[in-house]
Amino acid sequence: MSSEVNKGTPAAASTARHLEDLILEGSLRPGDPLLPEREMALRLKVSRPTLRQGIKMLEDKGLIVADQNGGRQVAMLATSVTDPLIELMASRAETVDDYLELRAALEGLAAGLAATRANDVDRETLSRCIERIEAAHHDADPNDEAEADIDLHTAVYEASHNIVLLQIMRALAGMLRRGVFHNRIKLYARSEVRDVLLTQHRAIHDAIIARDPEAATRAAENHIAYTRRVLNEIAAAETRLEISLRRLQGGNISQRV
User: Fold this and answer.
1) Cytoplasm: is it a keyword of this entry (predicted)?
2) pTM of the predicted model as reported, rounded to 2 decimal places
3) Residue 229 to residue 187: CA distance in whole angstroms
4) Sign of the CA dihedral with 137 first, then 138, 140, and 144 last
5) Average of per-residue pLDDT across 68-78
């Protein structure tokens, strides 16, 4: 997309629309700081008063907010976990499986589209993501590997060039990073699980690079199915441990000695 706004409409509205497009397509991401006003006006080839009016329009819509340094940034769109319904769902163990069921469908679709639509820039981004995962895996750093994991999946959605899919993934990624539906560190704390996840991530990456949509879809679906199974196993093991501890302690309400 050109950095120059459309001159065929009123300047402020055109500037606002241009910034909206950048947000919608994912070029401007939640939390991204905007350039200083003078530099931004030069980039967009508009006057500073016009830019201020355009940004004010986006502030009124909640798309742009002030940051702590006196500048402006993209609002944390589609990443909030404060909604009462989200919190309610997060408190129910059964929603984890529903969440992963949704992820399986979306991940397979996104990977298949990415294999068909990804360009050279997208493929380079995916390769950098897999390199980060491999480096974190080599260093046995589960936290970095888990973060790189999310970035890889986001890159797959970006490479799908489906804006609705991408924005859905951004919301899911925001909740995933905050551990709303499950604690991903529990996955990466297990070395044998980390090895399998690395192999699966490579398979997704390789299929997209090879432009093989069927293989990419299959690899993504297998990955989520495996994650789903392991999380269920972890949850079951934790439940058994809780029961054993309660038995040992008499449910915390007996006078057993």
Assistant:
1) no
2) 0.71
3) 11
4) negative
5) 83
